[in-house]
């Protein structure tokens, strides 16, 4: 058989696998919950770790098999092995539903599944000796930006979700929230001291330190501005104390999925409110009321979650006192 004939056979085989992958990707957004027997209803998240590991292994083997000299049998074997993992991957969206495992798990899972399927499609097209079929609009708009590296990264994130669950994700995001809060404190201290940046001059992401200094001007703050900044700094630092306490006392390993969903959303809203209020101080100090009100509300809402979810906890009194001080700071 000629090389061209072998290529045609490879393309035919890869197209069959690609059809499975593309149809699975189309089904992601419309997939229905799977009603499992009671004894199977509590599937361990560790299954995600196993699925992610196997897909990583098969896609790696397929990538290696596609290197010269290309062996038709090897390409077909590993592409078929990989296609056998598509059904278990899709089934995870039917098993780990929002009502049972929470929004954090489901949203992260759905994102990883979509990216893995798009990554597999990218890999199949890259190893084929000729262009493959099943070119969808999603491939035209997103697929060309995907790399096999992103595929393996998504597999690793799926594995991490299986090992660490929602708590692992919340802890990771907590680090980001605290880092952002510390940046907000630093920005407010600079603003209070009279520093402001001339953003019109920032036309490049590669500004060096000297250029950054040139684009920073100094202003004399009014007494009202200085007092308001001082007050906001106290509230930002109080919020940081709350965040630090949450990690220590309100993120137990036994936390339910739905509690973590709620706590994460409250932390996220508070973080966003902080970003908005500091930004508004810097841009338009005379019109900060809405941002301050939102920050006050979000901080209170977050503290209340720490109280209501742990009514008999020994630290409830601490959060109650924090909330009293928080309310008082806005009067």
From TrEMBL:
Biased composition, class Acidic residues, residue ranges: 202-213
Pfam families: GCIP_N (PF13324)
GO cellular component terms, A-Z: nucleus
Domain annotation Cyclin-D1-binding protein 1-like N-terminal: ranges: 48-193
InterPro entries xrefs: GCIP-like, GCIP-like_N
Span list, region Disordered: 191-224
Highest taxon listed in the record's lineage: Eukaryota
Membrane-spanning parts: none
Stored PANTHER family: CYCLIN D1-BINDING PROTEIN 1 (PTHR15492), CYCLIN-D1-BINDING PROTEIN 1 (PTHR15492:SF1)
Official protein name in the record: Fungal protein
Source species of the chain: Schizosaccharomyces octosporus (strain yFS286)
